[in-house]
Amino acid sequence: MNYSMIRFILAWVLKVEGVLMLLPCIISLIYRDPEGKVYLLLALAAMLVGGLISARRPKNMELYPKDGFVAVGLSWVLLSAYGALPFVFTGEIPSYVDAFFEIVSGFTTTGSSILSDVEALSHTTLLWRSFSHWVGGMGVLVFILMMIPSQNGSHMNLMKAESPGPEVSKFVPKVRNTARILYRLYLIMTVVQIVLLLAAGMYWFDALCISFGTAGTGGFGILNSSCGSYTPAQQWIITVFMIAFGVNFSFYYLLKIRRPKDAFKMEEVRYYIIIILLAIGVIAWNISGSGMYHGVEETVRASAFQVGSIITTTGFSTTDFDMWPTLSKTILVGLMVIGACAGSTGGGIKVSRFVICLKSVKQAIYAIAHPRAVRKIRMDGHPVPENIMRSLYGYMVAYFAIFAFSVLAVSVDNFSFETNFTAVAATLNNIGPGLAQVGPTQNFGGFSIFSKLVLSFDMLAGRLELFPLLMIFYPKTWKNC
Amino acid sequence: MQIVIIGCGKVGKTLVAQLVAENHNITVIDTNPEVVEDITELYDVLGIVGNGTSNQILQSADIEHTDVLIAVTDRDEVNLLCCVIAKQKSACHTIARVRNPIYSAERHFLRHELQLSLTINPEQEAAREIARLLQFPNAVEIDSFAQDRIDMLRFRIMKNSPLEGKALRDLSPILGGNILVCMAGTENGSVVIPDGNYVVKVGDTLTIIAMPGEAEKFFNRIGITTNRAKNTIIIGGGGISYYLTEFLLKMGTEVKIIEQNKARCEELNELFPSAVIDCGDGSSQELLNAEHLETMDSLVACTGIDEVNAILSLYARKKVRKKVVTKLNHVEFDDVIDSLDLDSVVNPRKLTAQKILQYIRAMNNSMGSNVETLYRLMNGKVEALAFIIQKASPVTGVRLADLRTKQNTLIAGIIRGGRLIIPGGQDTIEVGDSVIVVTTNLGFVDISDILD
């Protein structure tokens, strides 16, 4: 393993985190929050230490696939471990484990909180929480890739390990330029959302934080009611952007280079839209009888907002969907597991994996009827390569194994099964709220320290698609052979 | 520049390695998914699996915005077709590798009719290189600048050479005013840009820069007969042998070819009545002994198998009078090959890649950089570049003695009006000159980069 390169990357992560911490510092100046000093000191410390360690470039810049995974896994642990410090030092979340849970939830764009009263936090900390969503959404290593020049293809391993989806591909020949295109699209869409929310009359600080949360498909609200107290127009804007950020970014790139035909041919995006429309329809019909909402618009809005929020794994809410009928709740849990598109900022299993899995079920049935038939599973008209299928099955098994063990581990706290199950589903899929004890009006504060660590692991594993994190805990990774 | 390369064989790979190092944006297309995967793992390029003749595949490689398309698959027809199809949708320059002698003979016609920018025939390039080496048996390697008017020759210092043990500053009577030693490689593989204090040792390879006629005189002065090889024995009767025989017969060299395949022998005999064609296994020692190698001036080993070529050359090195040339196809293991006493090595794939690279660099000129020619020498440790001075800069009009240049950087020659000036402290660089720079600081793109 190329340890000096991993050290170099970790130092860069620290350096970049320091720079990112300057944004809350600016906010603290505007609101005259005393917490700003803590952020400034930590930012300077990170830049200094990271800068010193990364000053000398390693001779061998090559990253083997294993190194890429390990570097990404460690980077995210470091990012979270350091990012939790301001919460502790400002005294706003005194327990380190709680602070760690909170920032992991931020960077992994989960949005689960251990706080019962969000409004008590300073503006500076609120912004850092929401901003962590924005950074984590597209990925911090993709960000760093924009800055490290590379000649060999091995740096693609970093992007492969950090970006969600079964198959990660470049748009243009250079990793660096691909990363730039991604961040440019991401930034433009975020700015458009901020402008629209401002135009719809939202206060600027809310617009900023909510847009960060939407873009990263995170879900930290800055009000105790999440998005419930915003106007219908604002809620609609958030709904549309949540769904937009759950779309594969290749779609936008194809639109940008004026190949809309190819963009709309993307099978995954089509299924994604179909699933969303179906879910909105069924839930709207199902909750219209419950008497919770008045009029068609409010019913559809509640349904659309929740569906958009859950399938993209954002986790905002405008209503307490824990009160919904069982059919609607079950659909939501299903959407939690499916998740957004590959190559988006969302979490979950991903629509493309889900579609391929369903196709392989169909394939299995077909194979029983026609034992000699040769037929490949296709996606976007191309056969899915054998190695992708293999890693996909591996992923699915690992996913459900982690799911099951996490539910088992969390059960120690003796909450209801619904609570434990949805708590794991909400964290492993990077959603945020679950049902019952961890429902939209509740929080994760009641869990024991052990459960919080398990759930933090789930969040990181979910965001990095399991393997980078599993690699760190796999003993043979650290042996030279 | 945006470059599309179709075909990821050895040439394709060599091109990718070089072009990535020169910071171009590269897309590779190959029908074999494994090859594409390998190359995208190794280099920061975009890989597309598919047939380069398909318009759809070319579209997905963004052919409209491509500057150069290079087709180097193993089939001539595919290469030509790729270029033609690409041309329909794009204004890109197209480069095709074309090996078949039939197409090669008509390359001017093809180039014109199919609007190709460059066709390249690796076997012919290799043959030309070998022919050049046989004309200058003392040089290990020859590179040329300024449309072949200036040569850079690398040669090895043998025992009892008059240069042995002398410092370069004391050599001026031998060198004369028209020759400059611009690079010295020691036996253990290190390279220096020598100054006057450098002492020449046995086993060094010195590189000199000179006009072709001057080099010959110089070799005469240091007691090496520069008489070109008068006869040659070629082992293997493939494509290279065909082109080489054509060149050599034109130059008046006697040629003998040993080829195993009877039908091929007959074919060669029809083509070249004046050459001696022997049918037999050129790698058998008895046969070689029977050919009386010690009466031959030179031997060219170009069978299809690298290992056989290498062994043949090592054997012939002791017998043949002037020159042994080995054809190798593998592009890797440079260090190992250098450590063998093979005399000159010719690698058709490297030559092809180099020729294409030169073309692309020339294209880059019009896009800002003014590097006219660039050679990577001594396993890529040294670059020799020719710059065209298009406009006045801090470098022009200043006496060279007053220029503060970077360490290990030498202004090796100034070409003015087609004549080589070996620069001294009083000379200046003027607009319109071509300047040859030799340096171990890689990656210069402008003449002003030589300044410290």
UniProtKB/TrEMBL annotation, chain A:
The keyword rRNA-binding does not apply. One of its GO terms (molecular function) is metal ion binding. K(+) binds at T109, T110, G218, T313, T314, N430. InterPro entries: Cat_transpt, TrkH. GO terms for cellular component: plasma membrane. It is found in: Cell inner membrane. It is a multi-pass membrane protein. Keywords: Cell inner membrane, Cell membrane, Ion transport, Membrane, Metal-binding, Potassium, Potassium transport, Transmembrane, Transmembrane helix, Transport. The keyword Metal-binding applies. The chain crosses the membrane at residues 12-32, 38-56, 68-89, 131-150, 185-205, 236-257, 269-287, 331-349, 392-412, 453-474. Its main location: membrane. Pfam families: TrkH. Belongs to the TrkH potassium transport family. This is TrkH family potassium uptake protein.
From TrEMBL, chain B:
Residues 140-225, 372-452 form the RCK C-terminal domain. This is Trk system potassium uptake protein TrkA. The keyword Metal-binding does not apply. Keywords: Ion transport, NAD, Potassium, Potassium transport, Transport. It comes from Bilifractor porci. InterPro entries: K_uptake_TrkA, NAD(P)-bd_dom_sf, RCK_C, RCK_C_sf, RCK_N, Trk_Ktr_HKT_K-transport. Pfam families: TrkA_C, TrkA_N. NCBIfam families: PRK09496.1-5, PRK09496.3-2. GO terms for cellular component: plasma membrane. Residues 1-114, 229-346 form the RCK N-terminal domain. Gene3D superfamilies: NAD(P)-binding Rossmann-like Domain, Regulator of K+ conductance, C-terminal domain. One of its GO terms (molecular function) is potassium ion transmembrane transporter activity.
